[in-house]
Amino acid sequence: MAPEDNERGGDGSEPKILVFACNWCAYAGADLAGVSRLQMPSNCRVIRVMCSARVKPEFVITALSKGLDGVLILGCHPGDCHYSEGNYFTRRRGLFLRGLLEYLGIEPERFQVKWVSASEGAKFAEIVKEVTEKIKALSANRP
Amino acid sequence: MSNQSVLVIGGGIAGIQASIDLANMGFQVYLVERTPSIGGRMAQLDKTFPTNDCSMCILAPKMIECAGHEKVHLLTYSEVAEVRGEAGDFQVTVRRKPRYVDLDKCTGCGDCVEKCPRRVPSEFNLGLDRRKAIYLPFAQAVPRKVTIDAESCLYLVKGRCRVCEETCQAGAIDFEQQEELLELEVGAIVVATGFDPYDPASLTEYGYGEIENVITGLEYERLICASGPTEGHLQRPSDGKVPRVIAFIQCVGSRDVNYKPYCSSVCCMHATKEAILANEHYPDLKSFILYTDLRAVGKQFQEYIIRAREEYDVNYIRSRPGKITVDERSGNPVVWYDETVFSEAGDPVRRVTSMGVDLVVLCQALVPRGVHPEMEEKLGLELDECGFLAIPDQLVRPVDTTVAGIFACGFCQSPQDIPDSVVQASAAAARVAELLIFQE
Amino acid sequence: MRVPEVAEYARSLPNVVYVEDNLYACSEEGLSSIKEQIAKQHLNRVVVASCTPRTHEPLFKEACEEAGLNKYLFEFVNIREHCSWIHMHDSAGATEKAKELVRMGVAKACYLEPQEEFESEVFPAALVIGGGVAGMTAALSLAGQGIQVHLVEREKELGGLIRSVRTLFPAQQDTEDLLGPLVERVRSHPQITTYVGSEAETVDGFIGDFDVSIATDGQTKELKVGTVIVATGAQELKPIALYGYSRLPNVVTQLEFEEKFKEGADTPRNVVMINCVGARIPERTYCGRFCCTTAIKNAIWLKEQDPEASVHVLQRDVMAYGVDIEEFYRRAMELGVRFVRYDIENPPQIMGEERAEAVKVYHQLMGRQVVLPTDLVVLTTPLVSREDNERLSKMLKVPLGSEGFFLEAHLKLRPIEFATDGVYVCGSARYPSDIRESVSQAYAAAAKAAIPIRDGFVRAEAITAFCSERTCTACGNCVEVCPFGAIELQEGRFGETAHVNVAQCKGCGCCVAACPSGAMQQRGFDDRQLFGMISALAEEMTSGTGRQ
Questions:
Q1: For chain C, which terminal residue's Cβ has fewer other Cβ atoms within 10 angstroms, N or C?
Q2: Are A35 and B139 an interchain contact pair (Cβ–Cβ within 8 Å)?
Q3: Measured in Å, how far apart are chain B's first and last C-alpha atoms?
Q4: Based on the domain organization, do C358 and C413 belong to the same domain?
């Protein structure tokens, strides 16, 4: 980690959270939250993918090792995947990553896999608030 | 070429599907929708049986695909005024009602809606909450453009306000806008006007309109929907409490020679779905469905009923209730129905019994939305005795009406659910293609 | 959110040569401006930061194409729904976030590459497997649209299931009145080639380009088609061992009943029909949909032949849905047909040793057992899937559902399509459907099957996967995880490697994440682009102060 991190060091700093959202459900749910003007903390940054299954474990590990404070993968509810099975792979990868991150000594709150459908704007907002709160309570992601 | 154009009347899921198929086939499609947005009844549903898919989630991409298709010309907030001609060569007059909003300029940002001071009951939410005089019918409306309702707008009625005009940064408000008559030449017409819920107030024994906690299936749908007036919290009308016991009454107005003799086909599944959703939201909630025949005839429907019984505390009672009264103090409706009980000796005794519940949902008959009376007279477009568009040769041409070149799909021609409507919509597209293919 | 500040920030990013702050980018004006600047500034990437890509991305992409810039060199950044609208009271936070989102978008754009949408030609012919009412209707509709059709029917005659039906609901018309003309139209249509007594043996390929071989007349015929419709129907369940069927001579199914009395034999005095035989039971949970209709139809017929006849229908819910069937049901009751409800826990019992003499049933309303003397017992059974559905499903690479019928792409909105493009299904092959429903589905399948043929080609959005052969180790993970069966291992320049069929690839990216060597990538969402976005985000903020 770079030394100039002192700028953001210490507890109470604003965490930066990366969110992968699938095009068909989660991204649309986030759009709905926006259209409904549901307010939430501004710590999340969304990257759109077509399916949550596109997210390689390396993305999560790289993000966390570069100092991002959390990674969230959002996909369709199991059974509703636009590509039928993608989110099952995501679910399995999620479990694997949790184990790995734990082994690496990274707090489990920093990585989550959650399901948001296109009509769940409110759920998206809830998740953002909840995850931001939890990660804020942790110290900044430094070695 | 005018005969390579098609008119689709009705922007619900059937109209949308027909439009997409026709546009993909290469036809120019004029989709006329009476309300400000396409989407129809499916937009008002929370979930759809038997998959319990979120209705809007599967509808919205279709709405966007339809509206975005280069060959589809959306004419929302419009009506068909007149139709002349014959198959291959119809002349249609479409009345575009004034929205007082310039569609080219409006970005759907919604700032005007926030500032508008006038509230009226929301049609989309069946009067359960209010909308503004300038409004978007629902969050995912397509096109995403506001509409000013001339009957409630303070400026148009009383000459004051104009706050929306001040607020709009795009300068999209246009109080000078007039009704426009559009003349179209099309080769074929597809009618997809859908249905309306039958008002159960005429069945006075059920107390709809008198007893607060007696609501209709569609009203329930809006209450349980996350994007509805109560954000998905099932708050009963009288006191906002969450019910612990719900009774669903089937065949309200259906299968009844005094009202509608036919079976509306979807209500048994609809009630089951609503009971499942209630229990999903509130695990302690118990439902009773009072039915006559449990018509679950589609794919995965019986399995849905089994799940409802086994996992969601849904109880089926075979009986048609005689009346509903109310316990004045608690506001709890009481459902009176008859049942057979057995004496010690094993003799059956038929008796009237009652069940006090917290909420009653009437699964009302669904009535086809008619077409313009002119089409019926001038062109000979016939309806059957129940008001459905008559299909003379059901077994060979199930989407052909009594007029050549006019096809009908979805509920306007027979009671059916979403998959059947979507199938008929595509079937209508095929029939149009057969008709117009060699007309050059 | 302070848009001018975000615009200013964008100017400072590497590779950004032009920034415009426009209130309505998606308006005519905004789009013209984009086209103008592409030309003026010789831009080779465009990033628009505004609303959600899910609505207007195609619009902007087209604008780029019109200006001569490949539309896949365009990136959309959502700073409205995902930023300004959800952080309305946090201007500082929203502005910082918007800057970072733009930075991420620019980083991705730097790695975007021009793409050509894959176009594959569609062979202008269709294959219809199954020559029953559904298959014939689909064939006629396609032919009516000017499309060449190959119709394959396994039996020696066209007509399918309804050949065994005597009269048709609702008009009680003779089946031959419907079937005769239909078969004649099929046989005489110049665009339809009919193969009876034949079977489709193999169907290889993909939408637009299916290679079909048909076993016909002792030989094998090879064909090419663009689309395929499955209309193989279903068969009536023969309820062996239920209610004495196959043991007692006067216990028959509804179809056997119709067959028996086709020639106008004397109708029996006492008939008891039992509905839901082999349906809506734990072993077979589904409802046969139109078997109640059949029972009602035959019950009415019996009463019309002999008004004195005693006809009982033992049922567990009368599925007389809709307008006509409900009316029919009412008419049956008016004619004196007695509908007796029984419970699955107390099924009726057949009494008699050599023949069925009576049926004993627990009459729910009366609360006791009743004994109904009978001359004939008719069992109403559902349609069940054909035995060769398994073979067909493998041949066409389409799935079967739990009941054994073909499983469509989506139960609600895509009931006659499959997840595999170019193959469609209609009629009872999908689920028991009466004639009107099967015919509607057949027209619908014809519409779907016609579209690619009318277009002449299929085009896939260029977000498909591709495999870098040099790096591929042929581990086969991708082949396994692809939900669409679009990947195959093939011999190439570097030995056996994975090959993605772009016509079938849907751009989900499952294979990319499953690839251990990184050989598999997704156009528009490849690793460099996504890692680039992650790095861009994690970069230290060079403008503003860090937030505390």
A1: C
A2: yes
A3: 8
A4: no
pLDDT at C372: 96
Per-residue pLDDT at C278 exceeds 50: yes
Whether the Cβ atoms of residue B187 and residue B6 lie closer than 8 Å to each other: yes
| A26–B contact, CB cutoff 8 A | no
| pLDDT (0 to 100) of residue C269 | 95
Cross-chain residue pair B53–C412, CB shorter than 8 Å: yes
> Between chains, do C534 and A84 touch, taking CB under 8 Å as contact?
no
Domain A16-118: which CATH number of 3.40.50, 3.90.550, 2.60.40, 3.40.1350? 3.40.50
Among B70, B66, B74, smallest CA distance to B42 is for B66
Find the CB nearest A117 among B57, B61, B140.
B57
Cα–Cα distance for residue pair C415/B298, rounded to 1 Å: 11
| Cα–Cα distance for residue pair B343/B349, rounded to 1 Å | 7
Separation between Cα atoms, residue B363 and residue B271, nearest integer Å: 7
| DSSP assignment string, B381-406 | --B-TTSSBP-TTTTT-TTB-SSTTE
| A48 in C contact zone (CB under 8 Å) | yes
- My answer on whether C250 and C350 are in the same domain is yes
In this prediction, residue B127 carries a pLDDT of 94
Domain ranges of chain A: 16-118
Once rounded to an integer, what is the mean pLDDT over residues C196-221?
95
Q: Tell whether C183 lies on the interface with B, counting CB pairs under 8 A.
A: no
Q: Is the pLDDT of residue C203 over 70?
A: yes
The pLDDT score that the predictor gives to residue C143 is 97
Whole-number Å distance between alpha carbons of B194 and B15: 9
Q: Which residues in chain A have their CB less than 8 angstroms from residue B139's CB?
A: 32, 35-36
Contact C83 A85 (CB under 8 A): no
Contact of A121 with chain B, judged by CB distance below 8 Å, is answered with yes
CATH code: domain B200-364 is: 3.50.50.60
Which runs of consecutive H residues, i.e. helices, occur in B69-137?
111-115
Task: Please tell me the predicted confidence (pLDDT) of residue C545.
Answer: 31
C377 and C279 within one domain: yes
Q: From the CA of A64, how many Å to the nearest CA of chain C?
A: 9
Q: Residue C544's pLDDT band (boundaries 50, 70, 90)?
A: very low
Euclidean distance between CA atoms B149 and B164, whole angstroms: 13
- What single-letter amino acid sits at C259? E
The nearest CA of chain A is from the CA of B276 a distance in Å of 18
Q: What burial class does residue C421 get, using C-beta atoms within 10 Å of its C-beta: 0-12 exposed, 13-18 middle, 19+ buried?
A: buried
Show me where the domains of chain B are located: 5-97+179-194+369-439, 111-167, 200-364
Q: Quick check: C443 and B398 CB within 8 A?
A: yes
Average pLDDT, chain C: 92
Tens of pLDDT, residues C486-500: 999 999 888 999 999
- Tell me the chain A residues in contact with residue B226 when contact means C-beta distances shorter than 8 Å: 119-122
Dump pLDDT digits (tens) for B20-31. 999 999 999 999
CATH topology of domain B5-97+179-194+369-439: FAD/NAD(P)-binding domain (3.50.50)
Exposed e or buried b for every residue in B285-320, given b needs 16+ CB within 10 A?
bbbbbbbbbbbbbbbbbbebbebbeeebbbebebbe
CA distance readout (Å), C540 to B287, C495, C548: 57, 45, 15
* B64 touches C at CB < 8 Å: yes
Same domain (yes/no): C258, C379: yes
In terms of phi and psi (left: phi > 0; alpha: psi -120 to 50; beta: otherwise), the region of A102 is alpha
- Closest among C166, C163, C158, C214 to C187, alpha carbons compared: C158
pLDDT, one tens digit per residue, over B158-198 is 999 999 999 999 999 999 999 999 999 999 999 999 999 99
pLDDT single digits (tens) B387-402: 999 999 999 999 999 9
Domain boundaries, position C474? 465-522
The answer to whether residue C124 neighbours chain B at the CB level (below 8 Å) is: no
